[in-house]
Amino acid sequence: MHTLALPTLKKSLQVIACSVCLLLPFAAHSERLKDLASVQGVRQNQLIGYGLVVGLDGSGDQTTQTPFTIQSIVSMMQQMGVNLPQGVNMQLKNVAAVMVTTSLPAFAQPGQTLDITVSSMGNAKSLRGGTLLMTPLKGADGQIYGMAQGNVVVGGVGAAANGSKAQINHLGVGRISAGATVERAVPSSLGQGDQIVLELKDSDFSTASRVVDAVNKRFGPDTAAAQDGRVIRVRAPISNDERVSFLGALESINVTPAQVSAKVILNARTGSVVMNQAVTLDTCAVSHGNLSVVINTQPVISQPAPFSGGQTVVAQQSQIEINKDPGKVILLKNSASLADVVKALNSIGATPQDLLAILQAMKASGSLRAELEII
């Protein structure tokens, strides 16, 4: 039974301040092992470099405020055999100092090309139409793994007319497709030994156990063994060719992951609530200003008709009562669900701050049996 006492339905829709996204538990479905776990050692490596973009149309760095741009130009010219006189006032509005970033994929080999991102680190107005000069790309160990150079493509648009300016997207960041060339390969430990290590993306003992069972069922007993809730060791062929085929078959195994623990995520700025499964509530009473939430759970006894041969059934029925002047919502449910409470709070115009305070109170009292994460 639903009782809603509000002035009008239109007003109740207008006062909704929060949004709820509820993912109800559907029937268990299997996923590929490659979507649940990664192979240890198969990873990307970040690269970074400092360079100069030239050929800008007067939109480069203001060198009076970015002295590192002048220092970079002087150093580059000296390396090319050009010595600049002391005290020269360089006004290079067509040059901008930039940082170049990219990721080196696993098994990348010399000669392979990479896409790069070029970002202004000074006060350049735009990198549109500029050309990145040859820039070494280094890893965390300080070694050079790539060289970058090319024409910068900026996706933003800037325009000025009659004293007004309009800008879409960021003009200080651009990309160069295939703008870097790999110069050094990262050594891989994948082909060493007779074992490979799988790492689950989310630690879970039940999922790790199911992965081990699925692998052993596919390739034979004792092929896989779980080290903990994340790491799984798998015996693999020693030959590189056989190992690649083995990994291809391994990643294609279907595994049904275990159901994750109940979790509620609340965005305090927007009021969005996300639940990964149906989260129920125990008996509680929360008072927040002129807003109150009362949840009562009581047994409901159903007796069979005389001489019917049936059995008496005792079920739990919950009543959720939410009051806020001038609105009132009463819900009768077989179980008190957090989704029902949040929807009812929305219908009477509860603000994100109200929702945050109520959920925190429910969690502190033990009524909310789920992990509460506030972002």
Automatic annotation (TrEMBL):
Name under which the protein is recorded: Flagellar P-ring protein
Coiled-coil spans in chain: none
NCBIfam families with a match to the protein in the record: PRK05303.1 (NF003676)
HAMAP family: FlgI
Pfam name, any one: FlgI
Family annotation (PANTHER family): FLAGELLAR P-RING PERIPLASMIC PROTEIN FLGI, FLAGELLAR P-RING PROTEIN
Chain's role: Assembles around the rod to form the L-ring and probably protects the motor/basal body from shearing forces during rotation.
Signal peptide, first to last residue: 1-30
Family indicated by similarity: Belongs to the FlgI family.
Main location per the UniProt record: other
Keywords of this entry: Bacterial flagellum, Cell projection, Cilium, Flagellum, Signal
Assembly behavior: The basal body constitutes a major portion of the flagellar organelle and consists of four rings (L,P,S, and M) mounted on a central rod.
Transmembrane segments: none
